[in-house]
Write a structure and sequence with these properties.
The strands form eight sheets. Strands 13-12-9-10-11-14-19-18 form an eight-stranded antiparallel beta sheet, with helices on both faces. A five-stranded parallel beta sheet has the order 3-2-1-4-5. By secondary structure, the chain is an alpha+beta fold. It contains 16 helices and 30 strands. The protein is globular and about 70 Å long.
Length: about 600
């Protein structure tokens, strides 16, 4: 087993991996950006290393900085968590090629084979896994899309080779949209995955999203750990996940599970992964979907999933520990028939978003109150404590609430109790939305599809829930300067370390003899670039949120009118048109396609 593992991630998943390491008596190493210097995963780890500034491209995504931190810490393994570098085959190969460091995940070649969607479709098709009608070769010309539409009908999904979770996917509803949507999908693929290759699939209009958890070792053992139902989605992003699915009969879930096993075995895949399927819903059905229901392979996530917790709760198997053991060369010690399922579990993503305002992410704030729920069957995966400032440079998910019950009815009742207990003040969250969904007829009956939130639900109900159960996030002290002071005191002979915060107080001068706190290791990797110098005194158009520039749609010197699109910014896996608020001439463009920007960064200047 490993001596020390570097976790190349942040937040709750970093702490989750570190907890598994602790139980295996493995030392832990955190990496952090400047924005995360006070983050929970940094507090939890045995040691921590700064890998760069706030922008993910210059820190958490910096290959050399992360590997350099592992070498400096003398770590003998790197666990990527999910997101960031978790599905980056190039990074996986670099780790595999680094002497003395093991990659905790599938091999780079297997990751690449299943990460590129056309390759994955070919592998699954050859393994007799049902696939949605589509292309197995990249599509480059609009005429190819039109020919596909003539053969299979509309709508058509255009998907980026390296995409996932809705990113890089565009839907063509009729022939008039072919050229624009093809170009948009290619643009997203190039911006996010450095690969503008796209392929086509028939777009299923009433699907459920069912995924199967897999673990596989280098000794040829492949096991599935049952399915999760992730059909409650917003713009292809999961918000509530549960298992087992209440919409499937045992016969259908076994067919889907065995299909996942076959596909993974055919890909020579090892470690943990998730095989995702679309299952066609049958409107007006009486009872669960039977073994004759249509299901199709969607994609493989070659990493641990956010919602792995659901499977852990109903199987009793610690998937992260299994990842570490498999990476260390150990053999899976249970047979497929040994996998049993107990009760029902639901995971709620606690996002710092206002669901009533189109799920807009919070732009800042402090956890003035943070009091998570507890009790029988309640699990919290987080990295927070009261008083923490919200870091807005990355994903808006701040925690996960996972609830178990002996059956789905008890799980829903217990979830309502836990969500009522969950006390967060200082930032908006989607807890009111979750409470609403647990009383929603479609969700409770498990007849919802992936389209339910976007196309069918009455959104005024979300606004009412936010008004009823949401918190006032304004803070009178938000602009006060906070000075932190640390003291060592003795009470009745016992030594205590005390931290005090003073607002609008002058900083305390340093005492001779050294710093009060130990310093972090030196910075490794890239540093922040220079600020953009604004020329002239025109109107500055700033980024309203952190994201990536997909396209710049104007040129310097060009005249624009109010409402014209200046740039397209991707944030939270959605394209956002940044438009001119008034007419004028573009005097300066401060960004280029593919740039990462933070909230407040200058994009364009108008004279």
């Amino acid at each position: 087993m490993f001596r020390k593992v570097l976790v190349a991630n942040r937040g709750e998943i970093a702490v989750r991996v570190m907890r598994a390491c602790e139980e295996l008596n493995i030392g832990t190493v955190a990496v952090y950006s400047e924005a995360d210097k006070d983050a929970g995963h940094v507090r939890y780890a045995d040691e921590a290393y700064n890998v760069g500034p706030a922008r993910a491209a210059d820190s958490y995504l910096d290959h050399e900085a992360v590997i350099g931190a592992a070498k400096k810490a003398d770590a003998d393994a790197i666990h990527p968590g999910y997101g960031f570098l978790a599905e980056n085959a190039e990074f996986a190969r670099k780790v595999e090629d680094t002497e003395g460091i093991t990659w905790v995940g599938p091999a780079g070649d297997a990751m690449e084979a299943l990460g590129e969607k056309t390759k994955a479709r070919t592998i699954m098709d050859e393994a007799d896994v049902p696939i949605v009608p589509g292309t197995t070769d990249p599509v480059t010309d609009p005429e190819q899309v039109r020919e596909f539409g003539e053969k299979h009908g509309y709508p058509i999904a255009i998907k980026a080779e390296g995409g996932g979770g809705g990113r890089g996917m565009k839907v063509v509803w009729d022939e008039s949209e072919v050229e624009d949507q093809l170009e948009s999908a290619k643009r997203e693929g190039e911006a996010y995955f450095d690969n503008d290759s796209v392929y086509l699939e028939r777009y299923l209009e009433q699907p459920r999203h069912i995924e199967v958890q897999i673990v596989a070792d280098e000794h040829g053992n492949v096991r599935h750990l049952g399915e999760r139902d992730c059909s409650l989605q917003r713009r292809h992003q999961k918000v509530i996940e549960e298992g087992p699915s209440a919409a499937l009969t045992d016969e259908l879930r076994e067919k889907i599970g065995e299909a996942a096993r076959r596909g993974v075995a055919a890909a020579d895949y090892t470690n943990a992964g998730t095989v995702e399927f679309l299952v066609e819903e049958e409107p007006g059905r009486d009872g669960p979907l039977g073994p004759d229901a249509n299901f199709y392979f969607l994609e493989v996530n070659t990493r641990i999933q956010v919602e792995h917790t659901v499977t852990e709760e109903i199987t009793g198997i610690d998937i992260v520990k299994r990842q570490l053991q498999i990476a260390a060369g150990e053999e899976i010690d249970f047979e497929q028939d040994d996998v049993t399922f107990d009760g029902h579990a639901i995971e709620f993503r606690i996002n710092a978003e206002n669901a009533a305002n189109d799920f807009a992410p919070a732009t800042g704030g402090t956890l003035e109150t943070y009091d998570p729920p507890g009790g029988v069957g309640v699990r919290m995966d987080d990295a927070l404590r009261q008083g923490d400032d919200l870091v807005t440079d990355y994903d808006s998910m701040i925690a996960k609430l996972v609830v178990w019950g002996e059956d789905r009815d008890e799980c829903i009742s217990r979830s309502l109790r836990a969500l009522r207990e969950y006390d967060i003040e200082g930032i908006p969250t989607i807890i009111p939305f979750h409470r609403l969904m647990l009383t929603d007829e479609e969700f409770v009956a498990s007849t919802h599809t992936t389209k339910y939130l976007d196309e069918e639900m009455d959104h005024s109900r979300i606004e009412e829930a936010q008004q009823q159960w949401g918190e006032d996030t304004t803070s009178e002290e938000a602009d006060d300067e906070v000075v932190e002071r640390e003291f060592t005191v003795e009470v009745n002979g016992k030594r205590f370390e005390v931290e005090l915060e003073e607002r609008d107080a002058p900083p305390m001068p340093a005492v001779d003899g050294g710093d009060a706190t130990a310093s972090r290791p030196d910075h490794i990797g890239a540093s922040d670039g220079d600020d953009v110098e604004i020329e002239g005194d025109g109107e500055v158009v700033d980024a309203e949120m952190q994201g990536t520039i997909l396209s710049v749609d104007v040129d310097e010197g060009e005249e624009v009118a109010a409402g014209d699109v200046l740039v397209v910014l991707e944030a939270m896996k959605m394209e956002n048109d940044i438009v001119a608020s008034r007419g004028g001439e573009v005097s300066q463009i401060a960004v280029a396609e593919g740039d990462s920007v933070d909230m407040g960064d200058t994009l364009v200047v108008l004279e």
